[in-house]
Write a structure and sequence with these properties.
Distance between the termini: 94 Å
Strand content: 5-15%
Radius of gyration: 26 Å
Shape: elongated
Helix content: 55-70%
Number of domains: 2
Order of helices and strands: HEHEEEHHHHHH
Length: about 230
């Protein structure tokens, strides 16, 4: 009798031990998954670094605009790195990107809407210079903009000292201006750089990790739909 009771108690104890081991194993698995997600997010999400030269109100605008930009380019966030934002009261241009240091300098003070446009324009250049896969969109974008296929993507000496009339014809600058429309819906400052719906579609498809075939397919499908409606 006592032996039977002892056996039942032993089985219950063994069952409790097994359940405890199963619970601990599940908790360890959940902890491992959480740690992996944190590590992966840290490794693949570029950091927005705001310099001490930036005033608090401008910092709020930067953070809000960055969230909009990252929402559009989330699928590509693993191919470009951290970016530093500085403020400058004396620079002649609205903003400037230095690919050597991944630094964007923005002229202040300025209206928030103009600051947003300047930030998105320069972040587009940041992606352009850092993401190797960016070359996938260039041919389709140049075609979407109606430019000759052999048009150089950017000028050899950069765009800083280029005349405004020539600046507007550089594919790299048209891409950055078009990205403003993709992220913000419209340009706060109208420039001579043309914006086309096809160009917006090409950048959107690439930002969502469409391959070169899908980029071209999206472009020609849009053209076909436009032809059928006319």
């Amino acid at each position: 009798m006592n032996a039977g009771i002892e056996d039942q108690e032993g089985y219950r104890q063994q069952a409790r031990t097994q359940r405890l081991c199963l619970l601990l194993s599940s908790l360890l698995l959940l902890l491992a998954i959480w740690c992996f997600n944190v590590y992966y997010e840290h490794q693949t999400t570029p950091r927005l670094i705001i310099d001490t030269s930036v005033a608090p109100d401008f910092a709020v605008v930067i953070q809000e605009t960055w969230e909009q930009f990252m929402s559009a380019f989330a699928a590509r966030s693993d191919c470009f790195g951290d970016v530093l934002i500085k403020a400058d009261y004396d620079m002649p241009d609205r903003a400037m990107y230095d690919p050597r240091t991944a630094t964007i300098t923005v002229r202040v003070p300025e209206r928030a809407s103009k600051l947003k446009g300047a930030l998105v324009h320069e972040w587009a250049h940041h992606v352009e210079f850092q993401c190797e896969a960016h070359t996938e969109l260039r041919e389709a974008f140049i075609e979407a903009q109606g430019m000759p296929a052999n048009t150089p993507w950017r000028s050899e000496g950069g765009s800083v000292n280029v005349l405004s009339s020539d600046w507007a014809n550089i594919p790299s600058e048209q891409y950055a201006e078009t990205t403003i429309v993709l992220v913000l819906g419209k340009r706060p400052v109208k420039t001579n750089a043309p914006i086309t719906e096809d160009g917006v579609d090409v950048i959107r498809a690439w930002a969502q990790k469409g391959n070169s075939f899908l980029l071209r397919f999206s472009f020609w499908l849009h053209k076909l739909k436009g032809g059928l409606m006319n």
